[in-house]
Write a structure and sequence with these properties.
mainly beta, Immunoglobulin-like, 55 strands, ten-stranded mixed β-sheet, elongated, five-stranded antiparallel β-sheet
Length: 680
Amino acid sequence: MKRTLLYAAAAALVSGAVLGCFDAIAPRSPHARGVSLRLAPVFEEAGVEGALPSDVDLIRIVLHHPPQADTTLNFPIAPGQDSITISIQILLNGTTDTVGVDFQAIRSSDGAVLYDGTQSFQVSAGVQGTATSPLVATYVGPGQNILSIAIAPKSATIKPGDTLAFASLALDSTGATIVGMPVLFDSRNTGIVTVNSVGVAKGVALGSTYLVLTSGARAAVKDSALVTVSTVAPPVISLSAAAATFLDTAGTSDPAAQTINVTNAGGGVLSGLSVGTIAYGAGATGWLVASLAATTAPTTLTLQAAKGSLAPGTYTATVPVQAAGASNSPQNVAVTFTIAPAPTIGLSSGTVTFNDTLLTSDPAAQTVNVTSAGGTLTGLSLGTINYGAGGTGWLTASLNVTTTPATLTLGVAKGSLAVGTYTASVPVQSAVAGNSPQNVAVTFTIAPPPLVTLTGTPGYRVMQPGDTVTFAVTGKDGSGNPATPFGLSYTSRTPGVATVNPATGLITAVSGGTAVIVAQAPTASGTTADSTLVAIAAGGSAVVAAIGDGRAFDVAAVGNTLKVRVLVDLRGVPGDTLGSYNAQLNWNAATLTYVSSAVVAGGFAAPTLNETQTASGQLRFGSADPNGSGGAFALIEVTFTAAAAGSSPLTLALTDLSTAKTFIQLLPAAVVVSGSATVH
């Protein structure tokens, strides 16, 4: 690596341009002495150039001498000057001080520091200085990772007195061009050819010699060119074009070859033509083939670019056309290869949704616009439709044309599909597209017919612990037509008495008491529900209930007839029979109008009625049978007319519930159920 040597010396001349002295002056105080310090930087290099590169035109010296402030001095130098003498006066702190010196060699055009170093010196007042060890200033400028350097042209012939400019190209370890690195041009025989600091050669006398190009960053990196000085005009390489451009698109065939004519624009015969090593720019190599039709001009240079596995982008290369006898060899052809991305498929929407309802006509078809970016796409087609779980064949897809712009039409058909959500994916594809295939996700949701009401059976049930029964639910639409419930769920309001499977509606009796079981399903406007009541007769319990039309929660329209039965279930007290009872039924007289009471066939003995308060919503009745009745049976059936919209409780109260023969009072352990009626 280039070294810059800095000497500090005494007043006497030591050797050559190495000069320095320490001259004592009168002290300024008992502890201060002044000396004059001379510094003589000398720039040496073992290479053939033997001088500092002409890029350096400024020397900067920084003196460090605490406690005084640092002193910075700038010294312009002429191009190629290899030494200067610097005289500096400093104030000593004692008899002997240490002075630190920083040295920089600078290219002022861009402020680049090319060389840098530091050294310390001992300075004694009144003592004549001598040369000391040199300061080694290392190269710190561009090109420290230089790999190679090339001179162009590699050979040339000029006449005496003529000039020719040579150029340099330096590459780093990554293959990138180095910018701003100083270079040195030198002639092996200045009697034949001279060359200045910027590479301009001049013919002096007939003969041949080499110009040597050396890297200013690393002297071992060199190149050379053969220069011949002759009175005979040399051959000159002439190219019909100095650049070639290939434009291509990914996914297509390679572009056609291009040709450049190579002729002799000078004297003599241009022979020995060849193609040098192709220099590739960043990104990729090997994509270019260059060949000459013949080795003697005139001939043709053929260039062929091949994409191979290259990604879309721009690639560059330099093709040297060379001949040993040509005055301007080599001549370069700059090749640019631009690969555009393949056209891409564009969809106006990547998702399409169809919503439908059972028992209706199929929904209208929908369309998706198919476009392309980066050029027109050809060969458009649809791949195989990929169906999700649940059903296949319900989707049709078609393209109106096979080039962009195109329209994709999608249609769905329910056929025998059940209520639910179905999915499919439609691939839109093209062999020349850079993003093929592109998929359209299709969702088809089929809803049940519009559900308005639910009706569950049984509407009332007496059970014993461990018994099960299914709460079966049907639905109707607004016109009273059947409508299958969708998303049906079941809950128990008293799971300690009876539980229900939330999905199937299976009720299981748990313990004595009553529980309301609710079935619920979504509708277009919200939800609808129906309920049943189960009475659980635990051991030793009788059940007595007032139930309208067999439902604990009866529903009727104004003007309809309601029949309310008072029922007894003695299965919880096996072996006992009912001997007598005394009961009262209350209702809302504004909603229900009393019509009559009657004995139910197979029921208990005919009751004695007190109908004096029926107009205000009260009926009293009772009966006795010495033989008794067991199991489940009816005490009475009361007929009402639904008079007005509203709701009415069917409140049942008993003052006596005794067994036959044994006259045991069952009322304390009895489960009494009061139903209700809603009139709309």
